[in-house]
Amino acid sequence: MLAGWDALAAPVTRAATVVHPSTASLRAVDWRKPAQWSYGIHGTPVSRTLGARLAALEGGDHALLQPSGLAAIVNISLGLLQQGDDVLIPDNVYGPSREHGDWLRKFGISARYYDPLMGADIARLIQPNTRLIWIEAPGSVTMEVPDVRAITSAARAHGVHTALDNTWSAGVAFKPFDHGCDISMQALTKYPSGGSDVLMGVTITRDYDLHLKLKRARMMLGFNVSADDCALVLRNLPSTALRYAAHGRSALAIAHWLKMRSEIEKVLHPALPDCGGHAHWKRDFSGSGGLFSVVFNAAFTQAQTDAFIEGLTLFKIGFSWGGAHSLVAPYELSAERNTWPHRGALVRFFIGLEEENDLRADLEHSMARHLTA
């Protein structure tokens, strides 16, 4: 730092090569020691600042930044699993996470899918070779909220690590380590970035030995993040809780409105009493953010629901979420769930920061045009 210099924004420190004052200093470098600077891939001041703030947000002690949310998932799996091991994955998991579970089988790792609402009954699925249980709270499309405490308690009794995808809560509405999780990961692409322009993920732990396992895997995978992207996330991180609450207020109001519409068979929002695992959400979460799904009346064809989506003006069609703009995306669950009871089309909404009344008018107008019996 320059003498006398101080600012609210963290300086952007770009570096691949880190210069050492002596040969002895260079030889003493040990990637396991957090106080040392060794090489850009292991961190620079700006990436460590971001990691420390994210760990504090979630109640953890150690953070590792990744180039995407999926990279964080891969880092956890390849850091903890080896040939002959077994991993349990919830049936309502994020689609690429499910594909990743299938992909692990080529390395001799078995991946099995469990009912996300089975709670403590997961104990009967744990085998001697089970090493990891994934939890997603809630499921990213169908929104069931698991009993995280019951799952982590069963896992600990059998010496099995648990990893939670905490992206939906942004680390704001759910504190994973208070509920027994060993690892929390987030796609920082979503709320922490807030601008729909950064791809990044993070893994957070309390246990230092577990952190080192993940850090070694990240090193072997060659994962790294841009200093400029770290600065972008740091810029938006202080407003995350405020934005999350604003998204949540509008989303819940629109979810209640959609629940009264004849075009909709079911609204899948954790804060609604008829959503799977609502009692767990009410007990464990402090908010709900902007993401939820709906199931349309089965009388409507796919062509009709597609026309409804394409007829929206304020809602843009696209994946990801967490930014200022509202998004909509259709999902075909036949390939993504072992069981799914509904026949109507499932559509996921992300409610952005536009005026709630304008968004509701946009939905109503497209329904009137395209969803007629």
Automatic annotation (TrEMBL):
The source's domain of life comes to Bacteria
Q: Which GO terms describe its biological process?
A: L-cysteine catabolic process to pyruvate; transsulfuration
On this chain, the residues bearing N6-(pyridoxal phosphate)lysine are: K190
What cofactor does this one take?
A: pyridoxal 5'-phosphate
Q: Which reaction does it catalyse?
A: L,L-cystathionine + H2O = L-homocysteine + pyruvate + NH4(+)
Q: Which keywords belong to this entry?
A: Lyase, Pyridoxal phosphate
Q: What's the Enzyme Commission number for this chain?
A: 4.4.1.8
A single GO molecular-function term is: pyridoxal phosphate binding
Family, per the entry? Belongs to the trans-sulfuration enzymes family.
Its name, as the record gives it, is Cystathionine beta-lyase
Instruction: State the species of origin.
Output: Candidatus Glomeribacter gigasporarum BEG34
